[in-house]
Amino acid sequence: MKFADLTLPEALRKGIESAGFTDCTPIQEKTLPIALKGKDIAGQAQTGTGKTAAFLVTLFSRLLSQPRAGEARHPRALILAPTRELVVQIDKDAQLLGKECGFSIQAIYGGVDYMLQKNALRDGADIVIGTPGRLIDYLKQKVYSLSFIEVLVIDEADRMFDMGFIADLRFILRRLPPYDKRQNLMFSATLNQRVMELAYEFMNLPEKVSISPEQMTAERVKQELYHVSRKEKFPLLLGLLRKVGVVRTMIFVNTKREGEFLHDRLNANELPCKIISGDVDQKRRLRILEDFKSGKLPVMIATDVASRGLHIDGVSHVINYDLPQDAEDYVHRIGRTARAGAEGIAISLADEDGAFNIEAIHEFIKDKIPVEWAEEELYVHDYKRVKPNLKKLESHPHRAPRKAAADVQQRRRPRK
Known about the structure:
This protein is of the alpha/beta class.
């Protein structure tokens, strides 16, 4: 199905054409005919499947077809997302698709100027996109009202539960107009019992829409799995990076500490890279993402805080330096490549620990990742070594050097 086949307002159609969208993705093809009739949707879809455009097209179409009923400065539509990165990305997509629609759009999230966002929200916005925490903060100060919301979107609902946002989410939803007085769209990687309970409580008989498990991993992603010892893991990574040529590569790790050590090693071996993780401040994180998107930064290391909601075109390779412990995260990670019709490669390195996660991943994707065997010449053993940062280690008592721990015991020993 093509977007041209849908009955859409002319201003929205122009935005879709200028964005270069022609053919609907599977989730858009299933969702839009139902949602454009005004029905509620509970959709199962991973990031990278086109769900953002699905709910934005529905939202813009509804607002354009109905005159504003409430006060001019209060929002007509609310989009809730679990992370700052996802809010920023949805905002960019909304600005692109809706640039001919004439709506004011405001993103609200932590880590940036508090008063700037507050004043912008007070001045008025038709569409508000935000994380629950700061939205509640401004709501309690009566900066804006939720009494005139006509469309509610909850993106990555399962992640809301995982990140402990469910109480905040309920706080917001209880201050909206009655569920039958607005259109509700909810998307989630999984429509488990918790998510569906939320749907039935706050939505108006939502239609359940999902794409088949076979479509969960992008068709254009070539997947490869290398079995490697922990000791040989970095030499193999270095060889793979030199072989494929670094254009725009994302490397995923399971822990911030592993990412920092990998960051130091790659930079020491003339492979410029930066890392984003949960404790990187928002301004720096956005700057790193912009450098990566623009091509100034060829390699970006990330923990799973970055595996969802990042829409970066042109990512040629995704490398799982650590195999994720959660099988769903595997799909989220490799979904960073092969976007917008492009092709991509996802390489996974399974060491002694990571091998235990392979079976669960295969069960989830209902397929097996093809195994590749590395030739000896692919390993790079003459790389520059770096020492672990002892200051960082000492900041974590359970990882402090033994000598330091012994010194502490010596100081605590009572005098005779």
